[in-house]
Specification:
By secondary structure, the chain is α/β, with parallel strands linked by helices. Helices cover 58% and strands 13% of the residues. Bound molecules: NADP nicotinamide-adenine-dinucleotide phosphate (NAP).
Amino acid sequence: MLGKRFTIIGGSGGMGKVFGRFFKKHGFTITLFARNEDKLKKAAIELSVNYELSLEKSVKNADIVMISIPISSTPDMIRKIAPFLKENAIVFDITSLKYAVFKALTEIKNNFPVNCISLHPMFGPGIKDMKNYFMMVLKVGGTDQYDELINELLNLFKFDGLIITETLPEIHDKRIALTLGVPHMLSILFLNLLRSTNEPLNELTKYTGTTFLLQKVFAESIIQREMEMFGEIQMENKEFLKILDLFEKLLHKYKKIIEEKNITGFSEIFSQSLEYSKEDDYFENSYKYFYEFMNILKRENKK
Ligand SMILES: NC(=O)c1ccc[n+]([C@@H]2O[C@H](COP(=O)([O-])OP(=O)(O)OC[C@H]3O[C@@H](n4cnc5c(N)ncnc54)[C@H](OP(=O)(O)O)[C@@H]3O)[C@@H](O)[C@H]2O)c1
């Protein structure tokens, strides 16, 4: 049976606190670990839980250890805590990239009697509850109690309405390059392109059509968040450079079409994009959603 002592490494961070609240609600005793004592103490007070400044002490009695620190530091942290963990403990990370983390978790489950799983919640620290959000799950393996303990853990999430999809590291990282890396990059470049024209954004906004307004809201919501994480999601994923190569070629082709006023070429790119979107189950609703978002923005503007 799943034990109730839960430790979060990176417990003072945004995601650490989301999971801290979740597990506390499910009756777990929470301990937070991080390096900066002031921030850690503040988080522990905010959540009414314990904190610990020694890494070894924070994990050695834990039944479940969650690692919620930057992507590039996670594999080393997994290897560092492994010798301190108790038998049958569960270890999981929540990083947005899986290749290196999965390798480290596989290494420790082969050398220590622990149970490893890798999770990727597809939401940020701003959520109110987990209902109807998605989470990617990569099962790594462990002791003879693995299936029982991991199922119990996953059932907690399912109970709160989280939608779980099982995947593998290579597939995960390739798709994440497209579903996180690309929209993040386009938002950063969108704002940077506007900036490079020296047009003040408030002036541009007066010339706003519906598409620009929504694009701007989306890009501005991205750019206000954690720069380091967005950088890591693109730089630490070797799949992302391949996407950039494709993008470069596509942009080059697009520029030529526009320069040459090649309406046939334009129509070809346009219809290819349309045909691809028609594969989407939600395609029919997109135009409706677009105007629903617009109505929300209009209401906000009236206030
Ligand atoms: N934010 C999101 O939208 C989101 C979504 C899905 C998944 N994730 C994943 O969640 C993880 C955490 O993200 P976050 O947004 O919560 O980050 P965050 O708010 O920056 O928090 C990071 C936490 O890790 C601690 N930390 C940083 N480096 C450390 C190290 N080397 N050793 C020990 N503790 C360290 C920090 O405290 P100290 O600096 O005081 O140690 C802090 O408690 C990342 O792996 C990210 O990929 C994030």
